[in-house]
Amino acid sequence: MLFKQQVLLRQKLLVLGSLAIGSLLYLVARVGSLDRLQPICPIDGRFGLHGQDEIPVRALQFKRGLLHEFRKGNASKEQIRLHSLVQQIPKAIIIGVRKGGTRALLEMLNLHPAVVKASQEIHFFDNDENYAKGIEWYRKKMPFSYPHQITIEKSPAYFITEEVPERIYKMNSSIKLLIIVREPTTRAISDYTQVLEGKERKNKTYYKFEKLAIDSNTCEVNTKYKAVRTSIYTKHLERWLKYFPIEQFHIVDGDRLITEPLPELQLVEKFLNLPPRISQYNLYFNATRGFYCLRFNIVFNKCLAGSKGRIHPEVDSSVITKLRKFFHPFNQKFYQITGRTFNWP
């Protein structure tokens, strides 16, 4: 009888010991996870924009979950109202440039807890049919957010569409505008590569880049080719400067965003008057993809779509040289206007 009681006692002690060890391991893991989350948004109080009321980090994380549930139809409109969620007109827009890295920039800025992104390109200002639907239609295309958060959308066609600067000015003359650029010749080839891939998916043939970029009659650069025209950044920027001062633009180096994203993102944070929250912890290099991926927290990582970073076709070196020579004077003027110099050949 005594032996059985001793056995039962040992079993109870083992169970209690296991529970104690399990609890200890949970606390260690929990503290470790909070430490690892620290670079995203230090829990040293609350943060705010321009001295406005501040948003607790935990509330932000909860709100993002609530928004996700609302989009799935699992949260009621009453819940949204109670939590002060609104759909806001963007306070900043990534207006271009196509194939400059607009999607990467938007996704990386979304790492910041004070930024909410429009997932799709809205094409409100460059599409006459959409624009005719009015500003309320545009606002309802935006994601739900806190009143203190900044909503950002991106539509690369805005940069090169003639009517857009005036239309955006009429909506908000003090809006902040982001332009991400790459070396013009590389950008033009990337533009061509995307179109080529679309043709191949439909089993259609397409001209070689050299034939499109160079006028066969004059042997000069074909400025009628859209991929070439888009890369003449200064021509498009001058049209925008008729409505907005240069101080309302921030130029992002798209080539550097690929190889060294953090410094570029920190410059954008400063331009948008956001507290610094994006750190190296949020960005990790994926050797398989050859690009930086995003780390939101210890459980949620994200890489850009596989269509990003397409392999470019080989282009005749003489054509590349001719294009770079053509773009050179436009690049120099772009440096002068923006006050930012790039190491473009």
Q: Can you walk through the features of this model?
A:
The protein has 345 residues and is α/β, with parallel strands linked by helices. It is 46% helix and 11% strand. It contains 14 helices and 10 strands. It has a 5-stranded parallel sheet with strand order 3-5-2-6-7. Helix 11 packs parallel to helix 14 (317-338). The radius of gyration is 26 Å and the shape is globular. The relative contact order is 0.13. Mean pLDDT is 83; it is low at 23-62.
Task: Give the topology.
Layout: H1 2-37, H2 57-72, H3 77-82, E1 86-87, E2 92-96, H4 102-109, E3 115-117, H5 128-131, H6 135-140, E4 144-145, E5 150-154, H7 164-171, E6 176-181, H8 184-201, H9 209-213, H10 226-230, H11 233-240, E7 249-253, H12 254-259, H13 261-271, E8 283-286, E9 291-295, E10 301-302, H14 317-338
Parallel strand pairs: 2-5, 2-6, 3-5, 6-7
Antiparallel strand pairs: 1-4, 8-9, 9-10
Helix pairs in contact: 11-14
Order of helices and strands: HHHEEHEHHEEHEHHHHEHHEEEH
Strand order of the largest sheet: 3-5-2-6-7
The description of the largest β-sheet is:
5 strands, parallel
Rounded average pLDDT = 83
Name the beta content range.
Answer: 5-15%
Low-confidence stretches: 23-62
Binding site for 3'-phosphoadenylyl sulfate: 99-103, 182, 190, 292, 308-312
Domain Sulfotransferase: 91-334
Family: Belongs to the sulfotransferase 1 family.
EC number: 2.8.2.-
